[in-house]
Amino acid sequence: MSSPFLLTYDEWMYKLDQAYVMASAAEVHGLVAGLLSAGVEPEPKLLLPVLQDFLNDGQELSQEVKQHVVSLIEQTAKALAKNDFSFSMLLPSDDDSLPERLDAMVEWTQAFLVGFAVQQTDLSLVSDDVREALDQLTEVTRIDIHTTDDGSAEENDEAYFLVLEHIRIMVLACYTEVGQKFSAKTVSNKTLH
Fold first, then answer.
1. Which of 53, 137, 145, 181 allows an S-S link to 102, with CB 3.0 to 4.6 Å?
2. Residue 103: which of 182, 174, 25, 40 has the closest Cα?
3. Using CA atoms, how far apart are residues 80 and 167, in angstroms rounded to an integer?
């Protein structure tokens, strides 16, 4: 399966590493998706300061990484807006080890929740369905990737893909109910601790 992203996960990791960005590619994409799903317009001038704050300790990203992030913002916004389930997450390939894929999936989900929380600080404004989706995404972040499972590699892979599909559906629910509704608001650039 070819990647819908211009760069593969490994290429993203290499570019981030070369630019001394301490975040993973999964975290970058999760944060972008979280911000967009919470109603931030897909404008680089709005998103880049927040991304730099969270992913690079407030330091400006290199020009090359910034260009790739701008493309990632555009691609992610288009995929979310299609509302046809074509949205996918920037994660390691299926050829990578299951623990590596699980780790990235958890990082992606944590970053999504941070991005969502930066913009949507008052969850009383969102529906019960969105609050439930956020609760379920929070549960994903509690997956222990170091547990040994008695299941076969095939069963473990199947479970991984089921969780991934569930995350996608929860993200699309957040975007559809909140991202499109609140997108007129401006992004808050305050760091959560």
1. 145
2. 25
3. 13
Residue 39 is given by DSSP the state T
178 Cβ contact list (under 8 Å, min separation 6)? 37, 38, 39, 116, 120, 126, 130
Spell out the alpha helix ranges (H) of the chain: 9-18, 25-37, 44-55, 63-82, 98-119, 128-140, 153-174
The CA distances from residue 187 to 34, 85, 119, 155, 179, in Å, are 12, 26, 6, 41, 12
Residue 135 tokens read as 């609760």
Q: Which of 38-47, 130-139, 144-153, 157-166 has the lowest mean pLDDT?
A: 144-153
Tokens matching residue 27: 């975290």
Do residues 69 and 8 touch, judged by C-beta distance below 8 A? no
Residue 26: closest CA among 89, 76, 75:
89
Given this model, what pLDDT does residue 124 score? 76
DSSP 1: -
CA torsion angle for 57, 138, 16, 102 (degrees, to 10)?
A: 150
In 3-state terms, what secondary structure has residue 170? helix
pLDDT for 186 equals 47
Using CA atoms, how far residue 83 sits from 78, 125, 167, in Å, is: 9, 22, 15
